[in-house]
Write a structure and sequence with these properties.
36% helix, globular, EC 2.7.1.39, transferase, alpha+beta, binds L-homoserine, 299 residues, GHMP_kinase_N_dom, single chain
């Protein structure tokens, strides 16, 4: 008996919401098949699409870390075998490790007769994020699991809520062909934030959330600013400033780093603007001479 589940890519942070905001990009993601086995324990038996780079060890692979914690929690003592089919590039900032653990959890939960509600799978996926990058952040795993825009109001205790998504919101993801490891991208962050920056950032988070609920594209656009992580991280991302510049006059709502990068996201109020952003970015990277993949998706 086996079950296969798909979990989508995600854009974490969404500029102002460092570690507390994220949205799902439904078109792309990872697939995981979980099967019952007669041998007790959780094992990764197959990984495809990773170029042979992801670990099979139960305590290192995000799928098995998540499933081991889940199995312990529900008291399942049988065997589970995991087959992972990567659709997402590693180290891209599109929530690749999160999509794997979320798909594994969803598949295992269905396989074992839905002992938990979907939202209650979150802590196990967060544990896997801790193993993947050293920080148990939820801004990739929560939207990958729940879909749409998700806010993590608090980590202790965990308090997660879905936000309204206005119709017509589109996202362009610009993925340059190089990897940025989340742990490295976190290590460049300042550990102190000034009062001035805290005020700017809180205004923007509140503005973004209000803008989503009011479907106020202008307010969303004004709120897509990050004075905490982006200044330290953007220097690690070739083409970031050029992309910002290139989409300034085409009607996009804003530009930011997707998760910890190097993917850049551009939020647009309509599909044609998202495609215009794609064209503008293709020109930017042609000029820089760096290979990119550019995806357009509804949010
Ligand atoms: N919020 C996390 C970070 C997301 O920016 O480090 C990692 O993808």
């Amino acid at each position: 008996k086996n079950v296969t589940a798909f979990a989508p890519a995600t854009v974490a942070n969404v500029s102002c919401g460092f570690d507390i905001l994220g949205f799902a990009v439904e078109e792309m993601g990872d697939k995981v098949t979980v099967s019952l086995s007669d041998t007790p324990g959780v094992r990764v038996v197959r990984i495809e699409g990773d170029g042979g780079r992801l670990p099979y060890e139960t305590d290192k692979n995000t799928c098995s870390v998540a499933l081991k914690a889940f199995a312990e929690h529900i008291g399942f003592e049988g065997g589970l075998e995991i087959e992972l089919f990567k659709g997402l590039p590693l180290g891209s900032g599109m929530g690749s490790s999160a999509a794997s653990s979320v798909a594994a959890l969803e598949a295992a939960n269905v396989l074992l007769g839905n002992p938990l509600e979907k939202k209650d799978l979150l802590p196990f996926a967060m544990k896997a994020e801790g193993v993947a990058c050293g920080a148990e952040h939820a801004d990739n795993v929560a939207p990958s699991l729940l879909g749409g825009f998700v806010l993590i109001r608090s980590y202790h205790p965990l308090d997660v809520t879905k936000l309204h998504v206005p119709k017509g919101l589109y996202c362009t993801l610009v993925h340059p062909h190089f990897e940025l490891n989340t742990a490295d991208s976190r290590s460049v962050l300042r550990q102190q934030v000034s009062l001035k920056d805290a005020i700017i950032q809180s205004g923007n988070i509140a503005g973004l959330v209000a803008g989503l609920f009011q479907e106020d594209m202008g307010l969303i656009s004004r709120s897509l600013q990050d004075v905490i992580a982006e200044p330290s991280r953007s220097v690690l991302i070739p083409g970031f400033d050029e992309v910002k510049n290139a989409v300034k006059d085409i009607g996009a709502l804003g530009v930011g780093i997707s998760g910890s990068g190097p993917t850049t996201f551009i939020l647009s109020p309509a599909q044609d603007v998202a495609y215009a952003a794609k064209e503008a970015c293709l020109k930017v990277f042609e000029k820089i001479g760096l290979d990119v993949d550019i995806y357009v998706s509804a949010v």
